[in-house]
Task: inverse folding
C-alpha cells in the first residue's frame, strides 16, 4: 500500500482526529447534558454535570414511552428480518442454481426494487393496508418492511450462492437429495456470512425507518421508537434536559450493538454498494 | 441444473408475491391514482391530466419547482462533499497508520442513528441562542460566526445538508476505502519503483481504479437526493421553513397527500402525481443501476 513520510502521517493523524472529534463530540454532549438540570444546561453547556441527575432518564423513559417504542420496534424488526432472510434466500437459491426460462427476467424484476425507492409507493400502500384493515397495526408495518427489503437481500444472497460450486449441489442431487434438502443442508450452512449481512442490513433499515410509521401508525401504543421520540420532541420541545435523555435512550441500543459488532455492521452495510 | 415447476413456484412465489403486492403494484397504482382527485374518503373523481396541469402551471407549480431546485442543490452539494471528502479521508485511512480500525468504527458511528433522530439532535445543537454550536463558537472566540443556522432562509438548506454530511460521510469513506484496498498492492509498488510521487499515485492509479465505485455511489446519491424527507421533517418541519426555503419534493408530497396544517393543496391524487414526477426523475438512474448490476452479474 502507499507509503507516507513522517510529516504526512502526522497530518493524517491530525485530520482524522479532527474528524473523529466532530463525530464523537455531539454524542458526548448529549450524554453530558442529559444529566443536568435545565438551568445548568443553559448556563454551562460544556462543563461536566455538577450533580448527576439520573431522574431525567426516568422521566424521559416514561413520558416518551421508550419501553413501548423499543418493544414495538423489536417485534417489527425481528419478524421482518426473519421473513426477509428466509424468503430472499429461497428466491436467490432458485435463480442462482437452476435454469428455467424466466430466471433472468425474474432477477431484473427483483432488482427494480433495489433502485426504486418504495416511498414513492406509499399512497397505494397506505390505501391497500387500509382496505385490509392493517393501518395502525404492527402487522401492516411488518408486511411492508418484509416486502421492501427483499430485493437487497436477494441481491446479496444470490452473489454468495453463485460462488457455491454447482458440483456440490449436483453431487447431492445424485445422492438423492431433494431441492429443499439441498437448500437447507448445503446452501444455507455455506452462506452463513451472507445471511448475517442481509439480517443486519434489514434490521438496521427497519429499526431506523421513520417514514412508514409516520404515515401508517397514528396510535401511540403502536409507535416504533423513531415515531415515539418524534412525538416526544413535539410535546416537550422546551424541556431540553428531558430531550437529551430521551435522545440518549433512543439511540443507545443501536450504538451499543454497533460498538460490539462494528466489523460485521461495516462489512454488511458497505457490501451492497461496492459491486 | 434442471428443476420441476412445483419447486420453482414454491421457492420463488412467496418472495415475489409480497414484493409484487407491496412494492411493484403500489408503484404503478400511484400512476393510476394520479389521474383522480380524491380526499382519501368519499368519491374518487376522474380528472384526466388536471393534476399534472396543476403541477406544471399555476400556484402549485411554484411550490413544486422551488422544491425541485432544492433537490438538485441537495444532490450537487451532498455528492461533491461526500465523494470528495470521502475519497480524501479514505486515502488517509488506506495508509498503514495505527488505529485505522478504531477510526473506521468512529467514522461509521453516526450512520447507525436514524436520520430523523440525527435531525432532532442537531435541531437542539443548532438553536440560535442556546444551541451548542453557537455557544462553542463563542467559547473559542469565533462568536462573530454565530448564526441562526436554521432560521436564516439563505442558510437553512445548506445547514441541513451539512448535518446530512455529518451523518453519512462515514458510509462513503468506508465504501471508497474498500474499493481502494481492492487495488493490487503490486500496482502501487511498481509505480514507486518507477519513481511516482504519492500525489501521482493517488490521481493516476487509485482514482481511476475507483471510478466504478464512484459511479455507483453517484447513482445512489441521485436517487437518495430525490427522496430526502426525514431530516427536513426533523430540522425544518413539514412546512419546510423558514418560508419554504428547505422545501423538497418529499415534503411537498407529504403535505399534499397527508395534509399538515396550512397546506393550500391537499389531495391524494395530486400527491400521487408528485410521486410520479419524482419517479420519472429517478427512473433513468434506476434503470442505469439495474443495468450495471445485471451486467456485472452476467460476467
Result:
Amino acid at each position: 500500500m502507499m507509503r507516507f513520510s513522517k510529516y504526512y502521517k502526522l497530518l493524517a493523524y491530525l485530520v482524522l482526529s479532527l474528524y473523529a472529534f466532530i463525530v464523537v463530540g455531539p454524542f458526548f454532549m448529549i450524554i453530558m447534558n442529559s444529566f443536568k438540570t435545565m438551568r445548568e444546561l443553559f448556563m454551562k453547556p460544556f462543563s461536566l454535570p455538577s450533580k448527576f441527575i439520573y431522574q431525567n432518564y426516568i422521566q424521559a423513559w416514561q413520558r416518551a414511552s421508550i419501553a413501548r417504542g423499543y418493544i414495538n420496534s423489536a417485534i417489527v424488526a425481528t419478524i421482518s428480518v426473519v421473513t426477509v432472510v428466509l424468503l430472499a434466500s429461497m428466491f436467490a437459491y432458485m435463480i442462482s442454481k437452476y435454469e428455467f426460462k424466466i430466471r433472468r427476467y425474474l432477477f431484473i424484476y427483483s432488482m427494480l426494487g433495489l433502485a426504486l425507492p418504495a416511498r414513492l409507493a406509499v399512497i397505494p400502500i397506505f390505501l391497500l393496508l387500509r382496505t385490509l384493515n392493517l393501518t395502525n397495526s404492527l402487522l401492516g408495518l411488518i408486511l411492508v418492511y418484509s416486502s421492501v427489503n427483499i430485493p437487497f437481500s436477494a441481491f446479496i444472497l444470490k452473489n454468495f450462492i453463485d460462488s457455491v460450486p454447482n458440483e456440490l449441489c449436483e453431487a447431492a442431487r445424485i445422492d438423492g437429495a431433494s431441492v429443499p434438502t439441498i437448500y437447507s443442508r448445503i446452501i444455507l450452512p455455506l452462506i452463513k456470512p451472507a445471511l448475517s449481512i442481509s439480517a443486519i442490513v434489514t434490521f438496521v433499515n427497519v429499526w431506523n425507518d421513520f417514514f412508514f410509521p409516520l404515515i401508517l401508525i397514528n396510535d401511540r401504543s403502536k409507535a416504533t421508537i423513531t415515531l415515539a421520540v418524534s412525538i416526544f420532541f413535539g410535546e416537550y420541545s422546551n424541556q431540553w434536559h428531558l430531550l437529551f435523555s430521551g435522545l440518549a435512550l433512543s439511540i443507545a441500543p443501536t450504538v451499543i450493538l454497533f460498538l460490539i459488532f462494528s466489523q460485521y455492521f461495516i462489512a454488511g452495510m458497505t457490501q451492497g454498494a461496492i459491486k | 441444473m434442471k428443476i420441476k415447476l412445483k419447486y420453482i413456484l414454491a421457492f420463488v412465489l412467496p418472495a415475489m408475491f409480497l414484493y409484487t403486492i407491496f412494492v411493484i403494484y403500489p408503484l404503478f397504482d400511484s400512476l393510476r391514482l394520479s389521474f383522480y382527485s380524491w380526499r382519501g374518503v368519499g368519491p374518487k373523481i376522474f380528472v384526466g391530466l388536471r393534476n399534472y396541469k396543476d403541477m406544471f402551471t399555476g400556484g402549485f407549480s411554484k411550490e413544486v419547482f422551488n422544491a425541485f431546485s432544492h433537490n438538485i442543490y441537495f444532490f450537487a452539494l451532498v455528492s461533491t462533499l461526500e465523494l470528495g471528502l470521502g475519497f480524501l479521508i479514505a486515502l488517509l485511512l488506506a495508509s498503514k497508520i495505527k488505529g485505522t480500525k478504531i477510526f473506521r468504527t468512529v467514522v461509521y458511528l453516526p450512520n447507525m442513528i436514524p436520520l430523523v433522530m440525527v435531525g432532532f439532535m442537531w435541531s437542539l445543537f443548532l438553536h440560535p441562542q442556546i444551541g451548542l454550536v453557537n455557544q462553542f463558537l463563542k467559547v473559542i472566540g469565533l462568536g462573530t460566526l454565530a448564526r441562526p443556522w436554521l432560521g436564516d432562509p439563505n442558510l437553512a438548506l445548506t445547514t441541513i445538508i451539512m448535518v446530512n454530511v455529518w451523518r453519512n460521510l462515514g458510509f462513503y469513506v468506508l465504501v471508497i476505502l474498500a474499493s481502494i484496498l481492492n487495488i493490487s498492492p503490486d500496482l502501487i509498488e511498481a509505480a514507486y519503483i518507477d519513481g511516482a510521487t504519492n500525489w501521482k499515485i493517488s490521481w493516476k492509479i487509485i482514482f481511476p481504479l475507483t471510478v466504478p465505485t464512484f459511479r455507483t455511489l453517484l447513482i445512489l446519491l441521485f436517487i437518495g437526493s430525490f427522496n430526502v424527507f426525514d431530516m427536513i421533517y426533523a430540522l425544518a418541519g413539514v412546512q419546510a421553513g423558514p418560508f419554504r426555503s428547505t422545501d423538497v419534493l418529499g415534503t411537498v408530497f407529504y403535505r399534499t397527500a397527508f395534509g399538515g396544517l396550512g397546506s393550500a393543496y391537499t389531495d391524494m391524487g395530486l400527491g400521487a402525481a408528485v410521486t410520479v414526477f419524482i419517479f420519472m426523475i429517478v427512473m433513468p438512474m434506476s434503470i442505469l443501476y439495474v443495468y450495471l448490476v445485471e451486467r456485472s452479474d452476467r460476467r
Chain A touches chain B through 104 residues (CB under 8 Å). The radius of gyration of chain A is 23 Å.
